[in-house]
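User: Reviewer 2 asked us to show a designed sequence for the structure in our supplementary figure. I'm pasting the structure tokens here. Could you produce the per-position amino acids so we can include them in the response letter?
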């Protein structure tokens, strides 16, 4: 509480922002090699003895300092939110991925699943994947290679069957069998074969 009071005194006297007031207190604390709280208490005591005693309502003054600090913070936060909103990239719709692919990714061991998510979902380079996983780049590369091989084998079993080729055309109509024999297909068309 005393640090906040000292900060308010500095802000009121010098017309500075709260961060700058704390910085002044911190530097004085380091220069005199005493705790920040002690420096703040000295400042509050000095201000109380001089200026605050002459005030008709020291509590009102402290209230006003705190209120101004709160207004500054709220104003700064609103500006920061607006700037972040303006700079935010537009949301990107995720690519449509077939459910059997997600099932295969879920079947991977956790380390491989993490590597695949970082590399292919978040689109990070291998160096960043390695850094985030806390491994060397070669280890991340080996993990991704093993994951791709495992996915290939898993997807080979779950991949939908390729479409069937079109059915062959029905054979040409064959003339009815004659009494002399049967009709068999030949190279140039049906051939009558005689028995006998």
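Assistant: Here is a per-position design you can include in the supplement:
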């Amino acid at each position: 509480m005393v640090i906040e009071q000292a900060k308010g005194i500095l802000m009121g006297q010098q017309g500075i922002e709260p961060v700058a007031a704390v910085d002044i207190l911190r530097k004085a604390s380091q220069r005199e090699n005493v705790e920040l709280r002690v420096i703040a208490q000295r400042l509050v005591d000095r201000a109380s003895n001089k200026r605050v005693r002459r005030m008709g309502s020291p509590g009102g003054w402290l209230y006003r300092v705190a209120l101004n600090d709160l207004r500054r913070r709220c104003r700064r936060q609103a500006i920061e939110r607006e700037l972040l909103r303006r700079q935010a990239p537009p949301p990107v719709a995720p690519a449509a991925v077939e459910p059997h692919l997600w099932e295969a990714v879920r079947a991977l061991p956790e380390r491989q699943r993490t590597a695949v998510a970082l590399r292919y979902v978040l689109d990070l380079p291998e160096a960043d994947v390695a850094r985030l996983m806390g491994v060397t780049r070669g280890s991340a590369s080996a993990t991704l290679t093993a994951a791709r091989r495992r996915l290939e084998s898993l997807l080979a079993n779950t991949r939908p069957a390729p479409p069937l080729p079109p059915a062959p055309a029905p054979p040409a109509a064959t003339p009815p069998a004659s009494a002399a024999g049967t009709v068999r297909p030949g190279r140039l068309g049906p051939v009558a074969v005689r028995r006998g």
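For the response letter, you might also mention the following. The first strand starts at residue 181 and ends at 186. Residues 2-87 form one domain.
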